[in-house]
Structure formats: structure tokens, C-alpha cells
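Notebook, bench 3.
Goal today: get a predicted structure for Olfactory receptor from Vicugna pacos so we can plan the truncation constructs. The sequence was checked against the plasmid map this morning, with no discrepancies at the termini. Length recorded as 314 residues. Pasting the sequence as submitted so the record is complete.
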Amino acid sequence: MMGRNQSVISEFFLLGLPVEPEHQNLFYALFLAMYLTTVLGNLLIIVLIQLDSHLHTPMYLFLSNLSFSDLCFSSVTMPKLLQNMLNEDPSIPYAGCLTQMYFFLFFGDLESFLLVAMAYDRYVAICFPLHYTTIMSPKLCLSLVMLSWVLTTFHAMLHTLLMARLSFCVHNVIPHFFCDMSALLKLSCSDTQVNELVIFIMGGLILVIPFLLIIMSYAQIVSSLLKVPSARSIRKTFSTCGSHLSVVSLFYGTVIGLYLCPTASNSTVKDTAMAMMYTVVTPMLNPFIYSLRNRDMKGALGRVFCKKKTLFSL
Ligand SMILES: *[C@@H]1O[C@H](CO)[C@@H](O)[C@H](O)[C@H]1NC(C)=O
């Protein structure tokens, strides 16, 4: 495992989930089912939105991007976890570990930026309904999506390059089920001060600024509702913003829970449970939150499905 100069570790070992061996199969089945649900649910949303021209509105195009990001986010960690649970070969090469970390950060941030774009879209739809189509032009939507990709590439690249500078000497067992950035920092034998500082500053910027922007959009929405309060406008706002608000609460709820309730020094179980929450549960629930209560999505399902049926019967 060690190179001649004692500073090269070529692979890491992922400790996986803290479950008893006799429960391994049960958890394997559970996570496989959750992962398949995530993949199929999000794919269904992407396909429906692409196929049904009624859904080619900014809100649904952003939603389709969010589903894509959810799909990729859980595919960064879940297949490796499932594979580890199956054949008990928990090793991951050094480069694989950094790649996993890069894409984990990339799709995690992308989700946070897309939630801001969606909040802005709801703000324009409710506060400037007459100018909605001119403000939220396809060009602006595309620019917002591109901007999210650029920012998130920069952020994930920054952390990955800083991590690549570090050397790993003796310890190579990661007490987690994926290459988590903070778990890797604890294993390093170099000075990690710069990394920690950058994580602290960028983490703050990447989480707090989007969160504040979302709060600001909703503050505007609520204040415009209060100017002319009517049961109808409140119901309308709730039906168009309810799903977005649920996803935002789920996303920031887990993130805030993770950072505001610092874990005891080696409570791996709680860390892992929280990580499970945002890598598996959140991406799985998003499609359901958006489609179960949503008349447009159900209509699209009907239209796409019936069109197929008439095509087949011709
Ligand atoms: C993402 O959003 C852009 C701009 O609205 C849209 O053109 C594109 O089709 C979306 N991508 C996906 C995968 O839904």
C-alpha cells in the first residue's frame, strides 16, 4: 500500500454502512429498491417533460434539470455502495475516490443553484404575472442553467484540486460509504488548514447565499399576497409554490440538520444516517413531491401514455 517515500497510498477502503452482517441482505434490498425508485422516478419526469409540449415552461424545464441532477447525485454514491455490500471488496482507487468526491460536490451544488433558479421563476410568476413570458425568456432560463453549471464546476474543481495536493501516508480506511471530503481530510498526513478554511468559506457562500436568495423570493411572494389577500390567490400561490417549497425544506432541512447539530467525535452511525438522508432519500422523494400533487404532471402522463396507446393501435 505504501510507496518508497512512505507518502503514496494508491487505494482507499470504504468501511461502508455500520450494519450487522446478518442484516446486510435486508439493507441491500432496501437500498437497491430506493436507488431503482430514484432512477425510474427521475427518468420518468425527464422523459415526460421532454415529450409533452405543454410542459415546456421554465418551471418544468428547471424541474427536469433538477431531476437530472438528482439522478446523477445518487448515482455517484449508490452503485459503489451496492457493489461493496454485495462482494465485500471495499477498495476504491485514489483517483476513483477523488472523482467521486468531485461529482458528489458538483451535483450537490447544482441542486442548490437550481433551487434558486426555481425560486426566482416562482417569484416572477407571482409578482409579475403579466410580464412572466418576457422576463423568463428561454434565453434567461438557459443562462441561469449555464451559470449554475459554471459555478458548480468551479467549486467542485477547487476542492478536488486542494484535496489532490494532500498526501496520505498510513491510514486509508474511510469510515463512510463514499469518499466524503471531511472523512478524507481526517486521514491525510499533510497540513489541512487551507482546505478547512476554503471549505468553511465556500461552504458558507454556496449554502447561505442560495438559501438567502430563496428566502428573499418567498418574502416578496408573501408580501405581494398580503397586499391583496384573497382565498383564491393564496390557493393559487400554494398550488404553484407548494412543491418547490417542500423540496427546498427537504434539501435545506437535511443540510442544516447536518451542520447545526455537530456530531460527537466518532458517532459514525449518525453521520452515515444523515448522509443517507441526502444522498438517497432526498433525490428519491423529489419526483414524488412534484408529481403526486401536480395536475399538470398527471395530465402529461395521461397524454403521453394515451398517445402511445393510439400509436400502437394504429
Ligand atoms: C435544462 O434547462 C434548459 C433551459 O431551460 C433546457 O433547455 C434543458 O432542456 C434542460 N435540460 C434538461 C435535461 O432537462
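The first strand starts at residue 11 and ends at 14. Residues 46, 61, 64-65, 68, 141-142, 145 surround 2-acetamido-2-deoxy-beta-D-glucopyranose (CB under 6 Å).
Flagging this for group meeting.
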